[in-house]
Amino acid sequence: MGRNCVFARSVRLAAASVAAALLVVSCSPPDAARDSVTSPFSSPSPGVSAQDELPDKMQSALQDQLAQVMQRYGVPGAAAGVWVPGEGTWQAASGTADVAGAVPVSPGMAWPLRSITKSYTVTLLLQLADQGLVDLDDAAGQYVDGVTNGDRITLRQLAAMSSGNADYTGAEFADEYGQDPARIFTLAELNGFVLGEPAQFEPGTQRVYTNANTNLIGAVIEKVTGQPYSEVLSEHVLEPLQLSGTTYLTDAADWGQPHPTGYIAQDGVPEPQVENPSIFAAAGSLFSTLEDTRVWAEALATGALLDADTQEERLAGAPLKTGPPYDQYALGIGETRGWWGHNGEGIGFTSAAFHDPASGATIVAFMNESNVPGAHPADEAFRSFAEVLADYRTG
């Protein structure tokens, strides 16, 4: 099949399934997978040096689990890492980043974080609360005009996915995106597809995961600070944590080469997807490396950028009615079997980044295939790695 034909087919597939793809998550339940700014965050983690490696037996088990997940779902390429304080690290770059070009995955590649971006955005909101610039129980309509039920939806409900607000992935957006999949959308444009739309449910009565909740938070951040979202993110998260490999991108042309290509399987054949990060904005437009995401996962789970009381408040969650395979979802952070973090999915990529506060261990996984029916490959890899660590401790 010629390159132009592949591109055209990819565009048609993306346009036809845009609403589902923009959920940025697999909605399978957990057992479907397997039964004010502080000082810079330290890197690497205490007790883990760049030279230490996990025991050979554990590394072998982790590599085997990665290979099994990739084979099970036909994932072309993956990057993954496990860091355990006092024991060591394991990192892997496996398979192919770009099938057509036969480009192997390399350790330093930047991957789309997709919905892991949500955890950054909500962190910025919580920092504003720490500074007294917002209250989490403020009405969303106080900052963004035209939000349905905006006088009753709170900032807390936006962060917890309990606002009832419509998502932007309806027919109007799908039509505009389908006409020009390379069009660069602004945050304001994405939010414009939501304003005035009928609510899905009464605020606070359910938890339904959408990108629109987080993108409205992005608009709140811009309104309160008077700065573009990307500037606030750099100033208050990326620079304090020294995340030099993490970037907010809305134009795929700015994505450094070499980089992975995203795929969705069609009849068993991985079809390359057209990368357009602007369609996610504050809900999913961050790109990052394995090492930077390790630092972020630990900072997120431990509340390194927040007041202690705010972090405690952040971790108060409940199960989602629809959304990613977490045991519970709190304020821009999910919990799975005691591990706190976030995962993401969308248009050719899945990601997962979690930290276990009890052991200090961190797990990150990136994979360049999405829309696998009933499964989230990167989340499955995370869960299997966590089981390896648990078995090693109890064995």
Automatic annotation (TrEMBL):
Q: Which PROSITE patterns match?
A: PROKAR_LIPOPROTEIN
Domain of life of the source: Bacteria
Where in this chain does the record put each Beta-lactamase-related domain?
Answer: 64-379
Q: Give the signal peptide as a residue range, or say none if absent.
A: 1-32
Q: Which UniProt keywords apply?
A: Signal
List, alphabetically, the InterPro entries matched. Answer: AmpC-like, Beta-lactam-related, Beta-lactam/transpept-like
Name of the protein = Beta-lactamase family protein
Q: To which species is this protein native?
A: Arthrobacter caoxuetaonis
